[in-house]
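Bug report

Summary: structure tokens for TonB-dependent receptor differ between web form and batch submission.
Environment: batch mode, default settings.
Steps: 1) Submit the sequence below via batch. 2) Compare with the web form result.

Sequence submitted:
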Amino acid sequence: MVAITALAMAESASAQAAGETSTATPQATSTASEDQLQDIVVTARRTSEALQTTPVAVTALSGESLVQRQIASVSDLGRTAPSLSVGGGGTGPGSLVFLAIRGQAQNSPTSFSDASVGIYIDGVYVARPVVGNLGFLDMASAEVLRGPQGTLFGRNTTGGALNLTSQKPTDRFEGYAKLGTGNYGQRLVEGVVNIPLTDELATRFAGRYDRHAGYFKNPFLGRRQGDVDGEYYLRGSLKWEPTSLPVTLNIIGDYTHYRDHGAGVSTVAINPDGALASFYALSQAGTPGYENFNFGNAGPITQYLNPQFVPADQRQFLLSNSWRTVYGAPQTGNPKIDNPFSLTKAGSITANLDIDLGDVSIKSITGYRKSHSANSQDLSGTPTGVGGFVSIYHNHQFSEELQLSGSLGRLDYIGGIYYFRESGTEETQSAILYNTPAENFRGSLANYYAESKGVFAQVNYNATDSLRITGGIRYTWDTRFINRHGVDDYRAADPICSGGINAGLPASVAPCDPPNKVKFKYPAWTAGIDYKLSPDIFVYAKTSGASMSGGYNGRPVPPEYSSAFDPEHVKDVEVGIKGEFLNRRLRTNFAFFHAWQSKVQRIVTTTFVDGDGQTQLTQFVSNSGKVRTYGVEFEGTLIPWRGMELTGSAAYLHAAYVRGSRTENQLVNGLVVPVDRSGEPVTQAPKYTANAGATQTFDIDSGKLAFHIDYAYTAARYFDYFTTGDPAQAAAVAIGNESARNKAYSLVNGQISLQMDSGIEFAIWGKNLANEKWFSNAFNSYTGLGSSEQFPSAPRTYGGTVTVRF
């Protein structure tokens, strides 16, 4: 309806505006000679601007740069931008990614909470992190926006945003085909074709298939882990640009299929006084009931997770039987913890309509995404009964944004309205201490619905040709609904909940509480001033505020925590200077920032004893005090001579809880003890990050020969940390905390490519050439289940590609 109305407006204005079109695609413009830096155009403020006069700390990467630096997915961006930290899915599927910018992170994999870094692809927000690790295929650009972006990008951008843009159809018949191979049995097939259908209509298709064997040999299970069994990605784009109307319409559809056999996981610490060690000792001693708790036998766990033990009518009530048609036949569909895997399927369609009416532009951004994911993950990498998760996600999201932008004399403006909704289900099963008399299989199911509405406006007043004043505000209204069910011990039929709310429902799927609805409303804002000291030096100062939406936990929550959690808020001050020197051969950008977070959302992973006296393993979100961060960032590019480009960035980050802002009640020796946790380090907030790169290109008789190498450094960071109020547990807690600390690491990557004038390109590449050992996430239950695990990242990989362009 929005598109039809807008087209009608365009028809009436076509007489005075025919042929004029606007574009919002970030690009590099060729206004400089070969030994000068090119201008870079970004859309960090939802309109096209030069990078060097945009008052935002932003890292902009072109499509060519993404390929050259082997940035194949969102997770690879961690080695390109200062203050950006990337974490892997851990116990979640391989398509899951956790992002943190300037120490602001929210690492919950659930469908009931949101991230602090918003991911936008072609202008559409990607709500669920379970499909956040998007593959980069035929991309026009990627922008990493640092600092709160709530005014123009909306909620869930307290840390920043990723603004990703795919290549749009052109008026030329062109494309390429690529074949690749590498170690660990890596196989790659990729292709793009652009077809102009008429003078006004063009289409573009892109596709990729990628796979590799497991990176890690698990000596306990006798097989490899960390593989990608198959990743398929398809995208089709249609562009309509009529000559009789000032209109550009881009329609984009994509589909992703991702499957692996579980993330690599390694037990790195076993508590000699914990459950794992004690049960293993009992097993070795032949104690009745513990015979199968050992490192060589998975035992009877499979029978407990078989769908046969959940009656068909109850399981149909849980999932409407829909997931079986996606993930397999009923007898094999239920993932087993002793055979981990993850499978994600997602598809989306986006329609972007741009209308240029001269001094006024209208833009409609419509998006729909559907995703399904199932994964099982063992928590130890051994057949012992430490524990594991099984999760099944279903999600549908729709969004519509309508923008109005233009100029009135010295005043530039942009404003609009925004609507978003999503719905779905999430089922989780946890199994802990199996193969022992204490074994426990628990689960939960939640149906959820979320709706967000927003209105925003931002103006830039050009007081002089050099001085500009900016102000903007946004207001958001959120509604979240959740209906929680419990699936009890799969070996028993005892009811979960008490009271009359379960009347008429099967006991094992009865709602644990009445449907819950929470509502939130909050503003976002920005105010700033910028000034051109000279044509090549630009300075700015601004303050911004943004929020991350609150919600309601769908998984079990211990009684000392609240099931609902409030929005997280952040406000900051940022001062920056951007400059170009040496006849535009050197570009340097600095940003200084100071931010204050309140009602910080943190993921809690813990065990607790439920009302039946059974131990449960759960993850949920809780508000957790206040955090203050400050730091400085640098980015630079230098062309010392023709054909050579040097890039680099560095950041210093100080992130700490405000003293006394984070107090938690803990049960110690039967007494409730208040514990101050404000002395803990902020997770996923490395103090230093840096990267550097060099590319030398030689013109040869038959084409171009290019050598590229880059280096990325990340200081130590914690993925989890806990403070105990029990002095007797202090030593054990310290060991567990250390196991969740990723030591500082460095990554070296390189590529050599030969681009021939005939259109054929040969390339050899390598990632993590020094074979650095580091991990992308951790699970710390040293004082809970009695062990700590790490999820290692990819080792040294290398290979080659052949590309034919036409």
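Above is the batch result. After comparison, the two runs are identical; trailing whitespace caused the diff. Residues 2-17 form the longest helix (16 residues). The radius of gyration is 27 Å.
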